[in-house]
Design brief:
The protein is mainly alpha-helical. The protein has a single domain, classed as Mitochondrial carrier domain (Mitochondrial carrier fold). It is 77% helix and 0% strand. Helix 1 crosses helix 3, helix 7 packs antiparallel against helix 8 and helix 8 packs across helix 10. It starts with a helix and ends with a helix.
Length: 297
């Protein structure tokens, strides 16, 4: 191997490492921002999906009137601690898979979708334990009523271990993998398409407002497609101890539709759409800008 080839390889390795680090830092930062901005509406969505609130406004008033502002952030610790790390890894996975396709099969149709889907699968596996803890903490009152075996602090890690073992932390992983793989594949595909369509004809640059608009629109469309899977995930995770209601995912779908109708599969979508546009738009724009800055530094 010539000195020039070795030098080029060293440059490529340094560039790849720098891009990986930039993606990790930017992903972690945008993930933390996303949790703090979106958590109250996420809690309302979970309560509406699992309990009998007819509207997101009713669920919001119920939580706020009974539990106050502090109650709006019930269960936030687990996702806040995990999400920075989780998003660092998942965005790095997206960048790594994108680089792989560009190098080995640059003309592959749907490469962005496959990269996003891979990122989504990684994201779901990493996030499942914290998601279980979050849902069970948010549903504390209902879980105590459902199960005499549920201890006073049922959302805590020790109690999940005691009642269901390590497997209990991965309750609903199948639904999460399906939802996140499809959702993130669609999101990144649409985001990149919208962003390219809005790029300047002169220099190819994309404005901040275009990034936010592209991210928000892509987020709403992706979540609207995958939301029924999110309902199944929430209902499955909310089961606890002796309160197991569903035999499997198919049983959960059948019983949810029988109980709530097809509309029941979209219960809680309204608050998510309200939060999705600004949260997804701001988070992906922050990731893009910070990542580009770090890569060029």
């Amino acid at each position: 191997m010539s000195r020039r080839t070795r030098h080029m390889s060293a440059q490529e390795m340094h560039s790849s490492t720098s891009h990986f680090a930039a993606s990790a830092i930017a992903g972690g930062s945008s993930g933390g921002l996303r949790v703090l901005l979106s958590y109250p509406l996420d809690l309302v969505k979970t309560r509406q999906q699992v309990q009998s609130h007819s509207s997101w406004k009713g669920a919001f008033r119920s939580v706020y009137n009974v539990e106050g502002l502090r109650g709006m952030y019930r269960g936030v610790s687990a996702p806040l601690v995990w999400l920075g790390f989780q998003k660092s890894v998942s965005f790095s996975a997206y960048e790594a898979s994108s680089a792989f396709f560009k190098k080995n099969n640059p003309t592959l149709a749907g490469a962005t979708f496959f990269s996003g889907a891979f990122s989504g699968a990684v994201n779901s596996i990493l996030s499942c334990p914290s998601e279980v803890l979050k849902v069970r903490s948010q549903m504390f009152s209902a879980l105590v009523e459902q199960s005499s075996a549920a201890p006073a602090r049922s959302g805590r890690l020790a109690n999940v271990f005691r009642l269901t073992g390590v497997r209990g932390l991965f309750t609903g992983t199948g639904a999460m993998v399906a939802k996140d793989s499809l959702g993130m594949g669609l999101f990144f595909s649409m985001y990149e398409s919208f962003k390219q369509a809005s790029a300047s004809r002169q220099d190819g640059s994309v404005s901040l407002s275009s990034r936010v608009l592209s991210g928000g629109t892509a987020g709403i469309l992706a979540i609207s497609v995958t939301f029924p899977l999110d309902v199944i995930k929430a209902r499955w995770m909310s089961q606890f101890g002796n309160g197991m209601k569903y035999k499997n995912y198919a049983d959960c779908v059948v019983k949810t539709v029988a109980e709530k109708g097809v509309r029941g599969m979209y219960r809680g979508l309204a608050p998510i759409c309200i939060r999705t546009f600004p949260i997804h738009g701001i988070a992906i724009a922050a990731y893009d800008i910070l990542s580009d800055y770090l890569k060029s530094a």
